[in-house]
Amino acid sequence: MAHISIIGSGNMGQAIAGLVGKSGETVEVLGSSDAERVVTGDIVVLAVPYPAVGQIIAQRGAQLAGKVVVDITNPLDFETFDSLVVPADSSATAEIAAALPESRVIKAFNTNFAATLATGTVNGRPTTVLLAGDDADAKTALALVISAAGLRAVDAGDLRRARELEAVGFLQLTLAVGEKTSWTGGFALAD
Amino acid sequence: MAHISIIGSGNMGQAIAGLVGKSGETVEVLGSSDAERVVTGDIVVLAVPYPAVGQIIAQRGAQLAGKVVVDITNPLDFETFDSLVVPADSSATAEIAAALPESRVIKAFNTNFAATLATGTVNGRPTTVLLAGDDADAKTALALVISAAGLRAVDAGDLRRARELEAVGFLQLTLAVGEKTSWTGGFALAD
Question: What is the pTM of this model?
C-alpha cells in the first residue's frame, strides 16, 4: 500500500486525488491553508504552479527527505506563452531535484490535462501518464498507483527526459490555448 | 496547384511522396543519384537525416531560393540516443533557416512515423501533422496538401516552436525504440 500526499488543491491536485482514490490507495490533499500540517505520504505530489514550488521546498524540504516527490509543473512564462522559465538545457524537475537532494524526484502528469486524469481517457483510450526520473523504484511506485486507477503509466526514461516532457507539456498548452486541441484532449500515446 | 519536390527516397521520403500523390498535387522524388537534377517544386521537402542536410544546402542552396523548404529532421545523437546535436536553445529548423535566408523554411512531419503518413491514421483517427515556421503562407501551402490527402495539418506556431516539435520527435523515437509505442503509432493529437 502507498499513501499519497498532494500539495495543492487546484484542478490538477483534485484530478490526481481522484485518480489515487480510484487506485485504492490512501490520499491526503494539503491546500494553501495547511502550511502547518506535516506531509505524511510516501509519495508527495507537488500539484502547484512552478513559481510556487520554491516556497514549498523552503517550508517542507526537510519533511520531503526520503520521499518520492512528484513534479507535475509546466514552467511556462505565462506572460508571453512563448518560452519556459527554466534554462534550455535543464528542466523544472532537474532544478527541483537539485534543491531536494534527499528526495527521489520524478516528473509525471505534466503532459496530461486535468480532465484526462479525471476521466481516465483521451479519445476513448486510457490516458497515458509519462514519467521520467533517475530512481526506478520511485517511478514504479507511482506507476502502480496510476495503473491501479485504470490509466496507463509509461516510463519515458531518466531525469534528462523531463526536459522533453516539459516541451510536450508546453506545446500541448499552446495548442489548447490556440484551440488546436481541446482541454479534454491533447496528446495521446498510441500503444 | 502545387508541385512538390522531395529530396530523399528513404521511408519518410516515400511516405510523403505517397501523401502528395493522394492529395492530387504533383511530386518528384530526387534520390542520392540525382544530384545533377535541378529541383522544380514550389515546395521542397528535405527528407534526409539531419547530418545530410548540410551537403544538400551546399549543393542546392541557390536552387532553393524563393521556395518553401520543409525540414522533417529529428537531429538526434544516434550514438547515445540521449540528446540532440543542435544547441538546446535552437532547433535544426532554425539552423537550416539561417543557412537558407532566401527560402521560407518550415518544420513538418518530424513528429510522424512514416507508417502513419502512409496509412493516414493513428489509432484509427487521421494522423496529425504539426507545422512550425515564421511564414504563414508557406505553412498554409503545405497544410493544403496535407489536408487534401486526408490527414490533419495543425499550425503549432512560429519557427521557435520547432524546438518543441523536435523534443516531441526525439521523445517519440526513444519511446518507440523502448517499445513503449509502436512504429505505426506514436503521439496522436486529440481534436
Answer: 0.97
Query: Is residue A159 less than 8 Å (CB to CB) from chain B?
Result: no
Of B167, B180, B185, the CB nearest to A164: B167
pLDDT digits (tens, 9 = 90+) for A123-148: 889 999 999 999 999 999 999 999 99
Domain extent at residue B118? 3-177
Q: B71-97: per-residue pLDDT in tens?
A: 999 999 999 999 999 999 999 999 999
d(CA A70, CA A165): 13
Domain-located, residue A190: no
Give dist(CA A7, CA B84) in Å, integer.
34
Q: Write down the ipTM of this complex.
A: 0.96
**Could you give the CA distance from residue A100 to residue B129 in angstroms, rounded to a whole number?**
39
The whole-angstrom separation of Cα A26 and Cα A9 is 16
Chain B nearest C-alpha distance from A170 (Å): 8
Number of domains in chain B: 1
Average pLDDT over residues A93-122: 98
Q: B85: domain CATH number? A: 3.40.50.720
Bridging pattern class, strands A187-189 and A121-122: unpaired
Residue A126 lies in a domain: yes
What residues of chain A lie within 8 A of the CB of B125, using their CB?
123
